[in-house]
Write a structure and sequence with these properties.
alpha/beta; 8 helices; eight-stranded mixed beta sheet; globular; binds S-adenosylmethionine; three-stranded antiparallel beta sheet; single chain; Rossmann fold
């Protein structure tokens, strides 16, 4: 298991290649490369995209800012997911739970597992669940290279404004692929890099083409893009 901070560029571990290659991929996903780190990046590149720094837990106030209602329309985003009431969903890179607590009432017979690598985020999540008396949101400590959830245990995975900062995206996607049941889905929300009007730093945005390139290389099938959000893509991928 790798820990936060171990983000040196490396070839993908044999386990990732073996898992993806044997089960779902004709060829292994490309290795990481290195570049001079840009101010918001870690200098590690996956399929042409420099990975951004992780947002630290002192940024919880920023995650909870009221402007997100206008910038992201979170309730509309959650409606667009169209999840079944009994769905088991992992919110990966859950942060303060901004989406997890809005999602929880939509899965009253299911649950939301908030995965993060920062214990402080999970402490905030637990305290808020107690305060709001929400029973179907729970936290889970992940690692930079995996979510640590059992095989076939998830109906869906949600990633909001988080994937672009995963230091080991290929390993994370392999881990999510394994944890999803067949036909289980990833819902990816990232700020639209194609749209110059979206006032977000470059490494914190992503194009649809880039996301598709990475997810398809790691064994996911692209299903569709669901339009209607102010600043973000909502891209749907499926475990074949
Ligand atoms: C910008 S925050 C977004 C939080 C939340 N999704 C939201 O939209 O409010 C990104 C979060 O992803 C987490 N993160 C980064 N790498 C991760 C990984 N490999 N696994 C799980 N969480 C990760 C960070 O710790 C941080 O809490």
């Amino acid at each position: 298991m790798l820990i936060l901070g171990q983000v040196r560029a490396a070839r993908l571990p044999a386990t990732v290649i073996a898992f993806c290659g044997a089960v779902l991929l004709a060829s292994p996903p490309p290795a990481y490369t290195e570049s001079k780190a840009s101010p918001d990046g870690i200098g590690k590149v996956f399929m042409g995209r420099e990975i951004s720094h992780v947002m630290g837990h002192p940024g919880i106030g920023w995650l909870e800012r009221t402007e997100r209602e206008r910038e992201e329309a979170p309730l509309k985003a959650i409606e667009l997911l169209k999840l079944a009431p009994d769905a088991v969903v992992a919110d990966i890179g859950v942060g303060s739970g901004y989406y997890a607590f809005r999602l929880a009432p939509k899965v009253p017979k299911g649950r939301v597992i908030g995965v993060d690598i920062q214990p402080e985020m999970l402490e905030f999540l637990s305290a808020k669940a107690r305060e709001l008396k929400v029973k179907n949101v729970e936290g889970r400590l992940g690692s930079v290279d995996g979510i640590g959830l059992p095989a076939g245990s998830l109906d869906a995975a949600l990633m909001v404004d988080a994937y672009h900062e995963f230091s080991h995206p290929a390993e994370m996607l392999a881990s999510i692929l394994k944890a999803l049941r067949p036909k289980g889905r990833i819902y990816l929300l990232e700020y639209r890099a194609e749209d110059a009007q979206v006032p977000i730093k470059r490494l914190h945005k992503m194009t649809e083409a880039q996301a598709r390139k990475e997810f398809e290389a790691c064994g996911f099938r692209f299903v569709e893009s669901r339009a209607g959000l102010p600043w973000q893509h909502l891209l749907v991928f499926e475990r074949p």
